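Narrative summary of target 7.
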Amino acid sequence: MQHKFYKLLVWGLAFNVLIIAGIYIFSQNRKTQRFKLDPIQRIFSDFHYSEVKNGRKCWELEARSANRLKNNVNKVVLSQIKAVFYPQRGKPVYLKANTGILDMNTKNVTLKKNVHIWQKKGYNLTTQEIFYVQKKHLLYTDIPVLIVGKGLRIRANKMRFFLKQDRLVFLGNVKGCLHKETLIKSGVNI
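Modeled conformation, tokenized:
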């Protein structure tokens, strides 16, 4: 009788160990599933970001989709981007690009593929890659750019757009055509 009792006790303990081990393994699998569904990996549609300082909107950005990088959660990959920069002086600067990356820590933005920048003056700048540096309020590129507008067509290897000063600087192999009368008529100071 004692032998049957010990045998039953061993089987009961073994059964309990199996149940506890199964619960432990099941709970570990559920934690792994929760991690896989973490918002870091989700894709957001109709993404919108605004930078406001001292109650004044500095710039805003919209994207059709946004996806946080798995290896750097502070960087957001964007597609079909539209942005507007609001300098303290001067008119708003509009920008659009196919893809880009927004660094949520520094607020710097890298924009790529079919980048277009324009102001209501009618000037349109195109390039394939441009960077925005938040601390300097600077848009720049080190690859060729083309600016076209009324009485103006300029090509250059590099460009710097200082948004605070509303000043555009072309660097490296700058070539262009200017039609003085057309520029004066459109309000450009020469």
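The radius of gyration is 29 Å.
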